[in-house]
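Hi all, a correction to my earlier message: I attached the wrong file for DUF805 domain-containing protein. Here's the right sequence:
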Amino acid sequence: MMEGNMFGSTMWAGHWLWMLVIAIVAVIPAWRICQRTGFSGWMGILILIPMVNLVFLYFIAFADWPADKAGARNE
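and the right structure:
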C-alpha cells in the first residue's frame, strides 16, 4: 500500500528536527522552573520521559522547595 511512498518505512529527516524543536520547547521552561524552585536545572530533562514527566510535575508541585527555605533564612 505504501510502496509508492518516497519515504518508505524510513524516518523522514525533518521528523528528527521537529522532535528536537519540541524537546527544546518543553525542556527550557522545565529547566527554568527547576532553577527558580531551588532544584538543579538538569531535573528539567525529566520532562522528556513519558510517565516520569507526570511524577516530576507532581514532585515540583508538592515538594518543599529549597528556594523557599533559603528565602526564609534570609528574612
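Sorry for the mix-up. The CA atoms of residues 4 and 10 lie 13 Å apart.
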